[in-house]
Each structure stands twice: as structure tokens, then as C-alpha cells.
Amino acid sequence: MLQTKSEDEPMVTKKKSKIPCLSLSSFLPALEAVTAAVTMPGGGGVPPGTPSAKPKEKQRTKVVVALYPFKAIESGDLSLEKGAEYEVIDDSQEHWWKVKDENGSVGYIPSNYVKEKETIGLQKYEWYVGEMSRQRAESVLKQEDKEGCFVVRNSSTKGMYTLSLYTKVNHPQTKHYHIKQNIRGEFYLSDKHCCSSIPELINYHKHNSGGLCCRLKATPCDRPAPPTAGLSHDKWEIDPGELVLLEELGAGQFGVVRRGRWRGRTDTAVKMMKEGTMSEDDFIDEAKVMTKLQHQNLVQLYGVCSKHRPIYIVTEYMRHGSLFNYLRRTAPDQLGPAVLLDMCIQVCKGMAYLERHNYIHRDLAARNCLVGDENVVKVADFGLARYVLDDQYTSSGGTKFPIKWAPPEVLNYTRFSSKSDVWAFGVLMWEVFTCGKVPYGRMKNSEVVEMVQRGQVLEKPKGCLNEIYNVMKACWRHAPEERPSFRLLKEELAGVAQSVLAD
Fold this sequence. Notes:
It comes from Vanessa tameamea (Kamehameha butterfly). This is Tyrosine-protein kinase. Belongs to the protein kinase superfamily. Tyr protein kinase family. The chain is an alpha+beta fold and about 500 residues long. It has four domains: about 65-120, SH3 Domains (SH3 type barrels), CATH 2.30.30.40; about 125-205, SH2 domain (SHC Adaptor Protein); about 240-315, Phosphorylase Kinase, domain 1; about 325-500, Transferase(Phosphotransferase), domain 1. It is built from twelve helices and 17 strands. The protein has helices at about 30-40, 135-145, 200-205, 280-290, 325-330, 330-355, 390-395, 410-415, 420-435, 445-455, 465-475, 485-500, and strands at about 65, 85-90, 95-100, 105-110, 115, 150-155, 160-165, 175-180, 185-190, 195, 245-250, 255-260, 265-275, 300-305, 310-315, 370, 375-380. Strands 4-3-2-1-5 form a five-stranded antiparallel β-sheet, with no helix packed on it. It has a five-stranded antiparallel β-sheet with strand order 6-7-8-9-10. A five-stranded antiparallel β-sheet has the order 11-12-13-15-14, with helices on one face. A hairpin with a 5-residue loop joins strand 7 and strand 8. It is globular, with a radius of gyration of 30 Å. Mean pLDDT is about 85; it is low at about 1-50 and about 390-395.
């Protein structure tokens, strides 16, 4: 804000200048220059070439590179060819950008399928997997089961990278190598073999093991493309005639869930809502907003079929089903503490995103998280509990109410917040580290309520590290304001993973 002198300020007496008086003629050249500048075509007031004159900046053309192929089906969308470049025309929408291809065709593309050319870095290479954790890298490579199969991922040390390499020598295993840099800025895995860039280093070790357990031979098959925010740039209402309904995936509070195929190409999960179980009009309004929530650890809402009854909620399909069932059918020694912690961290990342966008889940539990390819875990059904009309589900005294995941303020006053979600997350962590046991065992709901009111908490799961159990206990602090946020929990769990479970 410009500051002006107040009329109440005392006048400052100026000292007489010692600069000698100049004649009017000496000012005329400067006066003429100023007058000329003011009357120049285009205005301005400052002659070109003077230090204060700023040339008009030319707007930079934004060019992106496609990381995944995309097949346009809806009118107005544009197909993407992996590796091709596109000029961005309009990126005002967060999830769908209007671009132009090399042939001059214009249309909308999902923004999470492209990366700006100037910042693409390693992302254009098949072998780079970004934020993939050590545990999921091992899972992907084990599933591929090929000697010399490898990926490069971000290390837990910021700005560093790790090479994860699968070998069958002696016995199948994944070895992890930090990519280091010397004082000259060169990259190496063995200091005898340095390269000026990581791609050059990878290329070198494709031809020479150079101290590794084997040569780099292959990368995993094409990784699945991420889901889009909605099935098109302006589509949240889905025609049920475009859906082919397949096998039943399960049934829950809201109704039966079946696998579906949209237009014969996109796998979906279709939740067929029981009539009378939810406030439908309110939910349909909310669905328009919810399709725009997008995170790698949230099950993507594609849209709804609201023109007939029952209403269909159409979401991303997750191949391995609920986290609860996945844990129950998997032997604990198959997973191990590192994988279990990674699952918790993924859920925490999804919840931190919801927290940042002021969304409350209200029913966070292992049964409401889903598992997909590459051990990816995603939070599902966020916000749905808000629209349920069944008193047995919404009232803390109801038989369907998730009492074993509820904190004191919800049990006493039905007061939901992100901090009540944090309490439920602590219980979810307990579910994960017991591989799917029921919290509080066979205790009745009334006994659980008494236990929670007395400040008693769930016991430490067998074999669970103290550092991890301490995080659970922080989630179960009696006063909501004393519980950590999901943002802080994410940092805390990442620290535990780094210090206790090596990268």
C-alpha cells in the first residue's frame, strides 16, 4: 500500500540547497525529451532504452510430454501417444487440460497423464518409478520374476535415487543400490564406473555388471496408467447403458458392488445403492465435487448413474479387494513389518490429502480401504457415511455404528472431524499389524465404550515395533486437539520407515 503524508504531520523545514541556480535554458533539452516521450504513439512516458523501460515479456509456450497413452472416446477429448509432445492451450482446470498435438488437433487430456517437458527429468524412462517404496518395488520385481529386472526409484534421502535389482543367483531376491555422486557431480554405483548422468549409468550397467549382482536386463511390463478424474473432461453423469455389469465383488452397508466395464474398455467397480439408504439428491450434488478429488491413495470416483433407481456409484476397480480381506488371507510372514508399515503410510497419504481439502471420512477402517496392483492401497467410501439415512448406522447407539473405530467425542456427541478420522486410523494401523484381527476381540460394544471412556487403549500387536505402536497411541489421545494431524503422522511414519526399516 502506498503511504501518503497525513495532513496532521508537522511540516519539515528544508535546509537551503547549496546547488547553484540553473538557467531555464539548461532545462529545455530534458523537458523536450520528457514531452516527446509522453506524446509518442503508444504512450509510455519513459523513452525506450532508458534503464527503467521494461520490454513486454513474451508468454512462454507450455509443452508437455505424454507419460501414458490415452484413448479419447468422448467428444472434445484428445488421444495421447506415449512420449509425444503437446502444446498446452488451457490449463485452468486442474485435472483436464486443453492441448494441441503436432497435427493441430485440439482437445482435452487428463493432466496426470503428462509432464511438462522442462521438468520431466527421469520420468520419461520406463525404468523410473518415482515415489514407489522399497516394499512395493520388491513386490513388482518379484511378480515379474526375471533375472536382471530393475527399477530406479526416489530414495528416502531427498534428492537421491536407489536402484532395485532382482536376481535369482543363489536364491530369488531384490538387491537395493544407492546411486551416488562424486565431487565432480558424476553418478556411480561402483566408484570405478562413473557417468555424467543417471541414464548413461543405467545404459552402462545394461552391458556390464560392474560390481552389481548381475547386469540390468529388463524393466517390468508397462505399468498401469493412473485413473482419470472422471471418465472425460466434463463427465460425471454416466449412462448405465454404457456399463456392462460383471461378477459381484461384495456387498456392504450401501448395497451390492459389481465389477463393470465402461464402453468395453475401462474396468470399474459399480456400487448399486439400496433404495432408501441415503439422501440421494444431496449425494448427487456432492458427487460432482468428489470426482475432482484425485490422489494416488484414494479410490477414484468416476461418476454416478442418477437417472434411474437404484443409483449407481462408479469408481476405479481395485483387483485385490478390501484391505481387511487381503490381510486375512495373506500369511503374516509373507508380508513382514516393512510391507505392513508401507500400507499404513499409503492410507495416511490419502487421508492427509482429504484433510487438506477439509473432507472427513467418518468410517475409516481396513474394510473401507482397497488393494490394487503393485500392493497399492487406497482409501474408499470417503464421505459416504454423511448421506446415510439408516439410524442404526449413523447413531452411536445403533447396532451398525462402527463403535470400535470411534473416539470419545463421537461416542458422546457424534462429533466428527479430521481428528476423529485420526483415531480411526490408529485402529486401522492395529488391524494391519495384526493382519486383520477384530479390534477389542469379542468385547461387546457397551464394554468397548466403557474402555474408551476410561482411557484404555488396544494392546500392542505381537511383533509390532515400539516406534510403530507409539504412533498408534498418539492417535488414541483422549482430547482430539492432542492427536497429531495426518500431515504430521505421514512425516512420523516416514521417519520410522527410514530409521528402523532401512531403505
